[in-house]
Specification:
Blueprint lengths: L1 H12 L5 E7 H6 L13 E7 L2 E4 L14 E10 L2 E8 H15 L18 H13 L17 H13 L4 H34 L3 E3 L2 E8 L4 H14 L3 E9 L2 E8 L1 H6 L4 H8 L5 E5 L3 E6 L5 H13 L1
Parallel strand pairs: 7-8
Antiparallel strand pairs: 1-2, 2-3, 4-5, 6-7, 8-9, 9-11, 10-11
Helix pairs in contact: 5-6, 6-7, 9-10
């Protein structure tokens, strides 16, 4: 059934135009391979409808282009006679309404509450399954709304889901619901980011070591993004005198290096964070740069991150 759905929706998205042949001899239609469905009797001249390679005799109404159908969704399948199966399906707004009913039912599902208290009644495992199914039907990338590892909602793919449902003209109330989930998740992610940054900052403050009048912090961070690292660097730089800060991190599987130096320290000891990081980044097969007081770099060799951090520290010793 899934293969049938996929095939039909591929033809819909292919935007195949209607090719209509009116009053052609039935012999000509037969010669072209036109299907004669339902066991009807035909006259000497017939109407032949063609979409791509598909040809049939028909006196009914057809769309001008397959894309007018928008979406095809199978709703049931069953036996009607020995060796005969029947498929029932909905299209266009009918398919959209079908999905709406599914989502309306799912939002009241007892499994609701996979994300947080704030949005616990808005997203469920069943909703995830529906969105996955929708992705397959429309031949779009899988919508991994709920991550199996931690149950968190991924904002980027939720945005894609909203776009997809808007495209098929799903009921506005459902789009609003999904947008509300997105807003709640953005707020939740922002709060988590602030709490994480605060915890990391406290940890870094406890790891300050003084060497020849210089307050040094070196730390390899986990589960952080570049924005959080930059914010931490500037906060620590403003709070700690004579600071020489070297932070390493793995971001999306690649090494990241950040150096921050107190203004007076950079001037007095002729240290330049941009020049230092440019040399240090070579250890992780990367590059970067920046100002005398702050610089960042990325690389391709994660195994070289420790060496890059050590290289950055060596400039202070020299």
């Amino acid at each position: 059934l899934q293969q049938i759905e996929d095939f039909v929706n591929e033809k819909i998205q292919a935007a195949i135009n209607l090719n209509e042949h009116r009053e052609i001899p039935i012999e000509e239609a037969e010669k072209q391979g036109a299907m004669m469905l339902f066991g009807e009797k035909y006259g000497d001249t017939v109407r032949m409808i063609q979409f791509g390679d598909s040809k049939e005799l028909c006196g009914g109404i057809h769309v001008n282009n397959t894309q007018d159908i928008e979406l095809f969704k199978i709703t049931s399948e069953g036996s009607v006679a020995a060796g005969i199966r029947r498929i029932e399906a909905v299209t266009s707004k009918g398919a959209a309404n079908y999905l709406k009913v599914k989502i309306d039912t799912i939002t009241k599902h007892p499994l609701a509450g996979l994300i947080s208290d704030e949005v616990s009644n808005k997203i469920t495992l069943a909703q995830h399954n529906l969105l996955q199914q929708y992705a397959k039907v429309t031949d779009m990338p899988s919508l991994n709304i709920i991550s199996p590892s931690n149950g968190s909602l991924q904002i980027e793919v939720l945005s894609n889901a909203i776009t997809d449902f808007t495209k098929i003209k799903l009921d506005a109330s459902i789009i609003d619901e999904l947008n509300n989930i997105k807003k709640a998740m953005l707020k939740e992610e922002e709060q988590k980011g602030k709490e994480q940054a605060k915890a990391i900052k406290e940890e870094l403050l406890n790891e300050v070591r003084n060497s020849n009048g210089v307050n040094i912090i070196t730390k390899k961070l986990t589960a952080v993004d570049t924005a959080t690292i930059k914010d931490l660097a500037f906060q620590l730089k403003a709070q700690i005198d004579n600071l020489y800060l070297v932070l390493g991190a793995e971001i999306n599987g690649k090494p990241n290096l950040t150096i921050a130096i107190s203004d007076n320290l950079a001037t007095e000891r002729k240290l330049h964070a941009g020049n230092i990081i440019r040399e240090a980044a070579k250890e992780m097969q990367g590059g970067g740069g920046g100002q005398p007081f702050f610089a960042t770099a990325g690389g391709t060799n994660l195994n070289g991150l420790d060496a890059a951090m050590e290289k950055a520290l060596s400039f202070l010793a020299n």
